[in-house]
Amino acid sequence: MKRLENKVAIITGASQGMGESHARRFIAEGAKVIMTDINEKRGSEIADELGENAIFIKHDVTKPGEWENVVAQSEAAFGPVNVLVNNAGILGPIAEAIELTEDEYSDVISINQDAVFYGMKYVLPSMVKSGVGSIVNISSIAGIVAIYGYPSLAYMGSKFAVRGMTKAVAVEYASKNIRANSVHPGFIKTPMMAAATDEEGGEATGMIPLGRLAEPNEVSDLVVLLSSDESSYMTGTEQIIDGGMSVR
Question: Residue 91: inside a domain, yes or no?
Answer without folding.
Answer: yes
